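tool_call predict_complex ligand=3-iodo-tyrosine
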Amino acid sequence: MDKKLISGFEHIAYSRPELSLEQLEDNARAFYESMAQRRTVREFDTRPIPREVIDHIVLTAGTAPSGAHKQPWTFCVVENPEIKRQIRLAAEEEEKISYGSRMPDGWKEDLKPLGTDWRKPFLEEAPYLIVVFKQSYGMKEGEKTQHYYVSESVGIACGFLIAAIHQAGLATVTHTPSPMNFLSEILARPAHEKPFLLLPVGFAKAETFVPAITRKPLDEILIRY
Ligand code: IYR
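tool_result ok
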């Protein structure tokens, strides 16, 4: 039997292929080793990428768990150069103010090793921008519907999205211009959607250099009980 009713709702049998413990170890290690190659990249090749690649990356993000399975996310994929330009100009306007006066010196000091500044050419160079919106509530037939754990759910979906971008062989940077309401205006999103994250997606430019920084070792991030 692969279907049954539980509390009146249809359920389907769940199964995964049965793997040996060695296979589990191999899988876990191989996925870690692949993810450990991921780096934040701020320089992109302008080479085009098939839409189907981005579609599958977004489909992967959409497999994330969410509060009460409300899937409170919208992924706007921008490839139109005019719209990318508008987004770049608006982001740089905010970033100029942020770097100039909004960010305290300590914050700017912390960012120095990453070499960031107000200029965001990657917003035009990358073939795609994925703008993630969180839906504070849903809209069904003109009525508001409740969403739960919205930021957590969308944050998890963004994790899946970033992993999928990397796994496909592409690169991204998690860009969060602040404030980012301009994204709602440029993309004409409805009031129940709030901008959450902006990700340029493309091939990393040939001869890209990234900061020589390392990740915390296991004994700093894992506590056993
Ligand atoms: N949003 C700015 C500043 C910035 C902030 C953090 I925290 C970073 O990790 C990186 C940058 C920018 O995108 O430049």
